[in-house]
Write the structure tokens for this entry.
Amino acid sequence: MKCRIADLRCKEVINICDGSRLGFVDDVVVEVVDGRILAIVVPGPCRFLGLFGREDDYVIGWDCIIRIGDDIILVDVKEHKREKRNKRFWI
């Protein structure tokens, strides 16, 4: 199955550990030298009615992805790792 990075943005991410819907893919983290995808980034939930911005983003490592389907991505994440968007990403 071929999938472009632009196609990942249309897919919803669901955690199979607790069945929670994390949201839609917003960004990906790519290692430029090797051309590998290291992680996907899902925006955090909105704060009070969306008026006060969002919580930190979910950064889900590529090794946590179980299955990529036509319209969903299943991930196995025991605890959600949240990071602010302006921080550097470390694996």
